Amino acid sequence: MKIMTLSLLPCLVASMAQAEDVTIALDWTLNTNHIGLVVAREKGYFADAGLQVDILPYSDTASTALLAAGAVDFAYMTALGFMSAKAGGADITALWVTMQREAGRLVYDSNNADITRPADLEGKTYAGFGSAWEDALISTMIENDGGTADYDTVTLGTGAYEALATGAVDFTLEVATWEGVNSDLLGREQSHFIYSDYGVPEPQGGYIGSRTAMLESDPETVDAFMKATAKGYTWAAEHPQAAAEILIAAGDFPNEDLVRGSMRVIDEGNYLTDGTTSVGRIDEARLTTMARFLYDSGVLRGTDGAPLVWPGTVSDWFDQGWMAE
């Protein structure tokens, strides 16, 4: 038996040496949006597919930019980041979408008697993050509720949540599955408005994509990576709390209950699968509707700053042929 075990070592070493190195850049610091990637790595799904996957930490360079430049093989991208890059001519293609429901929402202090509806945001102060998308979203909500989109903006980034809690600003935007959970853990009394209730299309969110050239030159690697990724997210959807513990063990989270709470909200809110759309499936109709909204709102612009013209279709923005049996 010992002789047989030793004789297998060269084969095992050779197999490990042949694992293909693959990189994926994240859109933000590690969080539950990335749960399937971590599960796929930690449970050996990537290794079983012959891949050695390096999940790169978030950097100052957007994941879409890294992907478009060919610095990484894959990227996890926000919906806005992906659509902006693609509309601007980046040679990238979406292969996957994580969230089947919109997790974003507009939040305000529940004790602020001056705010009961979006129209009340007129004249108030918004803590923002510096993108044109925010103004298009907020203005649409206010105007569709009968108000005038006239409000002040201070760009604070992640400092927006503390500013709202202290009363320095009147409202901001948050992700229910992360910042929303954190606010609950901190005991903050906050209320919210749902974007789609006031005329903003509900997109899917969290795209994973690759360079279009890689789809053509190395479809086997794309297929192997995406199927292992899908397996990771599917397992996480079926075992949310066990997946949370895997993510906690793999990361560095000051508050581990935030991770556990986030996965609970994702599970209870049917974010990874809404019961009708399978995990990871891109809905072309919803992609089209959101892209058209961004074009019409003037959010998507060229390098010269001018609004881009609606191309008529976004059917070539994504490819899920790897899902075919």
UniProtKB/TrEMBL annotation:
Carries keyword Transferase? Answer: yes
* Keywords, comma-separated and alphabetical: Iron, Metal-binding, Pyridoxal phosphate, Signal, Thiamine biosynthesis, Transferase
User: Which SUPFAM superfamilies is this protein grouped with?
Assistant: Periplasmic binding protein-like II (SSF53850)
Q: Which GO terms describe its molecular function?
A: metal ion binding; transferase activity
Show the catalytic activity.
N(6)-(pyridoxal phosphate)-L-lysyl-[4-amino-5-hydroxymethyl-2-methylpyrimidine phosphate synthase] + L-histidyl-[4-amino-5-hydroxymethyl-2-methylpyrimidine phosphate synthase] + 2 Fe(3+) + 4 H2O = L-lysyl-[4-amino-5-hydroxymethyl-2-methylpyrimidine phosphate synthase] + (2S)-2-amino-5-hydroxy-4-oxopentanoyl-[4-amino-5-hydroxymethyl-2-methylpyrimidine phosphate synthase] + 4-amino-2-methyl-5-(phosphooxymethyl)pyrimidine + 3-oxopropanoate + 2 Fe(2+) + 2 H(+)
Q: Does the keyword Electron transport apply?
A: no
Q: Which GO terms describe its biological process?
A: thiamine biosynthetic process
User: Where's the SsuA/THI5-like domain?
Assistant: 31-243
- Pathway where it operates: Cofactor biosynthesis; thiamine diphosphate biosynthesis
Q: Which positions carry the signal peptide feature in this UniProt record? A: 1-19
What this protein is reported to do is described as:
Responsible for the formation of the pyrimidine heterocycle in the thiamine biosynthesis pathway. Catalyzes the formation of hydroxymethylpyrimidine phosphate (HMP-P) from histidine and pyridoxal phosphate (PLP). The protein uses PLP and the active site histidine to form HMP-P, generating an inactive enzyme. The enzyme can only undergo a single turnover, which suggests it is a suicide enzyme.
What binding partners and quaternary form does the record give? Homodimer.
Q: Describe the family membership recorded for this protein in Swiss-Prot or TrEMBL.
A: Belongs to the NMT1/THI5 family.
Query: What is this protein identified as?
Result: Thiamine pyrimidine synthase
Task: Tell me which species this is from.
Answer: Sagittula marina
